[in-house]
Structure formats: C-alpha cells, structure tokens
Amino acid sequence: MSRLGLRSSVLSNIMLGVIIGPSGFCIFQNTPWSETLAEVGVLFFLCEMGIELTFDRLKKMWRDVFLLGGSQLLLTCGAMYAIGRHLFGLGRLPAFIFGAALSLSSSAFVLQILGEQKERGTRHGRAAFGILLMQDLVVPVLLVLLPMLRGMSRIKDAVPAMQQAVLRTGMALFIASVNGRVVLGWLFSFVAAAGSPAALRCLSFVSIFGTCYIFEALGLPSTLGAFLAGVFLAETAYRQQVDAVISPVREDFFSFFFITMGFLVDLQLVFTRPIMVLSTVATLLLVKSGATMVVCRASGMNWANAQQVGLLLSQGGEFSLVVINTACSEGLFNPLQRKLLVTAVGISLACTPILAGIGRELAEYLEQFKEPAIGGHSEAPETNKGAEVVVCGYGRIGRMITQVLDERLVKWIAYDTNPRVVSKARMRDLPVFYGDAPQVAVSLSKRTGDGGSMGSTKMVVFTVGDTRCDETAIQLKKKSPEVKVLATTQHPGGAAALERSGVTPIVPTLPENSMMLNLPMGVAVLDQLGYSQEEILPMIREKRLELINKEA
Questions:
Q1: How far from 290 is each of 87, 114, 269, 369, 476, CA to CA, in Å?
Q2: Which of 282, 297, 370, 539 measures 20 to 30 Å from 202, CA to CA?
Q3: Domains of the chain
Q4: Which tens digits make up the pLDDT trace of 280-330?
Q5: Beta bridge partners of 486
C-alpha cells in the first residue's frame, strides 16, 4: 500500500482481509476466534476513545461537537434514511438503521490523515474532529438500541425501546460515574503506591473488562461499558498510565477487527453486480460529502474548508460496520444486504486518502484568490480573540509549538513578519496573521483589564530570540503581570535579564535549523499552562520519535 502512496494501516488491514479471506485465497474463514479477537479490539478502541473524550475537551469544543456535529449527523442520517426507503426499498425501521449506520465516518482513518498532514489545528481539522466526537457519542446509544429493536418492523413500535435505551444509558452513566470517580480512583491509588507497573497494568485490564462484564449483566452491551470506563478513567490521575497500557494492545487487536471486515468484502459481488456496488459507493460518498458541506457552509465556513470536511468524512466508518453486523444479527438486514453495505463501506474507506488529497488541492486553489491582510494592522478577526496562547513568530519553533498545542486542543493565534509564511498558513486556514512583536504587544495591551489580565489570553510566546523581542517581552510582562510570557534567547545573559523581569526564558541548545529545537519550548509552554509531567512527557516523546523517523 505504501508503494501506491496509501499509507494507512486501516486500509492495509481491510485489503489483507480481502486477500486472505473467503473471497480471496480463502486462507482464513470468519471463525469464532477471529470474531472474538475483533470484538476485543473494538472494546479497547472504545475505551481509548473514552479516555480521549474528557469533559474539559467537550467543554472547549461544544460548538463543533454539539451544534455542527449534531446538525451533520441529523441531516446525513435523514438523507440516507430517504435513500434506504425509496432506492433500496427498506422498511422504516431498517431504513433508520441504514441511515444511522452510514452517517458514521471513520474516526481512526480521518484522525490518522489529519495527524499525518498536521491539520488537526486547522479550521477544517477542528470541524472534522468535532463531528467525529459527536458520532462517537452516538455509537454507544445505537449499540444499546439495536438489541431492543428485534422483531419490530415499524418506527412507532420502536419508540418505547428508544426511551428505554435512553433511560438505561442514563442509569449506566450514573453507575459508571460512581465506579470511575470513587472505586477506580481509590483502587489505582492503592496499587500505584506499591510501585509495581505489572500490577497497574493488570488493574487497567481488570477495570475495563470488569466494567464490560457489569454492563452485560445489566443487559447493556459491553461496548458501552468499555467506552464509559475510558471516559471516567480519563478523569483520574492515572489516565496516561492506562492509555499507555491500552494503546499497543489496542492496535494489535483492532487490526483483527479490520481484517475480519475484509473477510466480509465480497469480490464476487463486485464482479457479478458492479453497477449495484459502484452506485451504492457513489451514493454514499456524494450524499455524505454534500450534506456535510451544506452544514459546514451554514455554520459560516468558507467553501475551501467546507469541501475539505465533506470529502474527509464522506466514507463509511469502522462503527458503520459494527452497527451493520449487529443489525444483521438482529434480523434487520439479510445477508445480501449486509454484504453489499460492508463492501460499499470498505471501498469508500479505500477512496478516503484520494478524496482527502483532492480536497487539499481544491482548497489551495480556492484560497489562492483570497490574500491575507498584510500590512501594519495586526489585529486578528473576532473569531480568533478567544485564543489562550499568542505565538509571536511562526517559524520552525512556532509551528511545532502550535502542533503541540493542537494535541491538547488549546486555541492559539500566531503572528509573523514574513508575508510568504503568513500566506502559506492562511491557505491552510490556520490562525496566522501579519504582525511583528511590538505591534502584537500594543494590540494585546489594548485588551488588558484590571489586574493585568487579557481576557482569554493566558500566555504569550516569543520565538524569534532577538534583543527587540526580549525587550518587548519584558515590557509586556510589566503591563500584564497576570499573563505568562515565554521568550527564546540566544545567550545566558539575556536569559538572566528575562528571568529577573518575570519572563520565562528558553535557551536553545541545538542549531536553529534543527526540528528538535521546539521540544524544550513545547515542554515549557505546556508546563506553564498547568499540564502535568505525566501528560506532557508521552506527547513530547511521541513528537521526538516522529522527528527521528522523518530524519531517518
């Protein structure tokens, strides 16, 4: 797959399943043990998703998650429901499940693409992430709902089941909340005091599978238990340790899930009924991308960003496959319909890297007609005044600092004096504007209130490292003592002067052109924002490995 320019483990695993599965060389069949391994992979994936989905993150992204994500989900689900009813001839209830399943996109796939392209901090990246989070919140409810719909043929009959599903989910949230905040917190503190990594690892697995067992005993799906276990483990002090334990195991087991999905892709169906399969894939891609673009445009995005989000989220997702398989086992879809839908989702996943590339090229073409405002005016638009961190200098250090901030979903805004750098960043819809350090300081000083605060701005970072920037940093700190100010400096003498004024100095220890230069700066920025070392170090370690692999 790498030779073809499609570097995706998800796509590679699906293709491997197709090749070695029943429609390929028939080396393996979809046996019970493979289904069990795939189910364990889904549990770990949901748990890790829950760990990432903290309440603080939801609070920061509520507009993108609940307004944009909710609107996109409703419109896409409604459009797919209509297609299921009128084009596929499904009953109302199967059409509802059809619409719900195909409205879901691939979190694993899309987030991987955004991460590879360093686009999580862009407007379209944040929008796509918010929509995916909304879908992730809906998946557990869908999985609770499906077993309750067995034998029901009308939506009217299913309303009591839906009410019961919502009630059970609410009860599960209360149980998981008490268990996660009180019981698990105490257990992890007790085991951590023993200083045994093996014991902590065992407790992580016991807490996840134990929660899944309790939920199954209550008549709820284990997948919901895994998700909520992750949500409430994220609120404990041991979030990073649990995440570190789950991640490598999750990747291995989740690979089996995608391989087993490859088993279900029917090549014979593609060859015998190519028009039916390709028309289903085309309908899925066109309807989802079109509905998502409409919602994004209605939310105020420009066409460049709207079409990127639409093309990124046009595929079916890993949980589309889970919902389809669960619905089939409950008798809502027949085997032929399942094969058609799974095959269509698999092909749509294969199209995603190509569509993402088309969206990127199209965005650059559309943005070239929109020049950034370059001149003495450094004031950013109203939409960027909620930034928590202001970065002065968007060179190598500035770019890498903003990438670190994106990992923690911290809103930032950057300034640079190089028109080419600003123009390039604006083409990617990054919040980068023209302005030098003194101009930025004057602009920020206008917003300084009583006590020296600057509203939402918690920190200002100067990355240039010259005498002029040092003086500006010192003056800004005097005017706004409540705001944290960091600055790079090229010599220890300058560091001492900055420190005496209350500015946190960073002295680079590597050559200026080294990409490793940002790492100590990234640590300092996150540390000053109040993140713990347990949260900072794994992220910085991952960045360091990423840079080493690039240089290799």
A1: 18, 20, 27, 23, 47
A2: 539
A3: 9-367 (1.20.1530.20), 382-551 (3.40.50.720)
A4: 999 999 999 999 999 999 998 888 889 999 999 999 987 888 888 888 887
A5: 461, 504
